[in-house]
Amino acid sequence: MLLSDKIPAHVGVIMDGNGRWAELRGLPRIEGHRRGAERSREIITAAMEVGIKALTLYAFSLENWQRPKNEVTTLMRLLEIYLRNELNEFIEKGIVFKTIGEIWRLPENIQGLIAEAEARTAGNTGLTLIAALSYGGRNEIIRAVKKLISTGVSPDRITEDLFDSFLDTAGISSPDLIIRTSGERRISNFLLWQGAYSEFYFTDTLWPDFTKEEFFLALHDYQMRERRFGAVPMRAKS
Ligand code: IPE
Ligand code: IPE
Ligand code: MG
Predict the structure, then answer these.
(1) Which of 71, 164, 186, 231 could serve as 67's disulfide partner, Cβ 3.0–4.6 Å?
(2) What is the largest CA-CA distance in the chain?
(3) Tens-digit pLDDT profile for the chain (238 aa)?
(4) Closest Cα to residue 131, out of 145, 113, 148, 156?
(5) 163 Cβ contact list (under 8 Å, min separation 6)
(6) Which residue's CA lies nearest to atom 8 of ligand 2?
(7) Which ligand is nearest to the CA of 180?
(8) Which residues line ligand 1 (CB under 6 A)?
(9) Measured between alpha carbons, how far is 129 from 100 in angstroms, rounded to an integer?
């Protein structure tokens, strides 16, 4: 059972393990990506069901550009199909679609689809769905630094809040919970600044097998934790 007053406002997901899922079945890696995309639909719906406000899905990292050309090309093709198919769904469900990352590196047709989805969902009030595409946390920080410097701001005026407003995630709260599937226990350049106090949930389940039920298990696990932010535990007596 989930506690309705302890639902994380923002959940980030490192959707990992598509390739291994396919390889285990003797299928081409892209089949794992296709099944992974289907799984993300289920998780978006589940997030809306429990009242999560923002969901960031790490779909393609800056480092992923180094993969074999045919995997990158087919991934881009899948992304295109996904965006084409989902737009009406986003509109119907009141989803606000956003992206973070170096979008200008993506094929032009995909950039167009992203711009359209962002524009047509901007007035919605439901779940904010953030797709991390061509995204790297260090790169995002460097881009923010460059933008900040170009404003000519004096160093003594630079605060964490000001810096935050120059990141791709400006206006979005930090992730309360970050989930990573597939047994890898690392951050792989995801939301480095924003994840400073995120709770982490790691599971061996490969992304195409990550069901809504397991998502709820992760939320349950999160609800059992005590977030201290450097303070003393609530029960401690001074
Ligand atoms: C995650 O699955 C999706 C992307 C990074 C695009 P992987 O493709 O990394 O799958 P594994 O880690 O090789 O199994
Ligand atoms: C992280 O997964 C990126 C995404 C899930 C999009 P990777 O599979 O690229 O990360 P590493 O290489 O295992 O760290
Ligand atoms: Mg991987």
Answers:
(1) 71
(2) 61
(3) 899 999 999 999 999 999 999 999 999 999 999 999 999 999 999 999 999 999 999 999 999 999 999 999 999 999 999 999 999 999 999 999 999 999 999 999 999 999 999 999 999 999 999 999 999 999 999 999 999 999 999 999 999 999 999 999 999 999 999 999 999 999 999 999 999 999 999 999 999 999 999 999 999 999 999 999 999 987 766 6
(4) 113
(5) 144, 148, 193
(6) 16
(7) 2
(8) 15-20, 60, 64, 75, 182
(9) 11
Rg (CA), the chain: 18
Identify whether the C-beta of residue 80 lies closer than 8 Å to the C-beta of residue 109. yes
Which residue's alpha carbon is at the smallest distance from atom 3 of ligand 1?
A: 16
Q: List active site positions.
A: 16, 64
The span from the CA of 230 to the CA of 121, in Å, is: 38
**Whole-number Cα distances in Å, 8 to 167, 169, 206:** 21, 17, 23
- For the whole model, what pTM was predicted? 0.97
What is the C-alpha separation between 183 and 175, in angstroms, rounded?
A: 20
The encoded tokens of residue 23 equal: 């390889």
Fold of 4-225: Undecaprenyl pyrophosphate synthetase (3.40.1180)
Residues 68 and 237 sit within 8 Å (Cβ to Cβ): no
User: By C-alpha distance, which of 35, 79, 56 is closest to 192?
Assistant: 56
Quote the tokens at residue 47: 């997030």
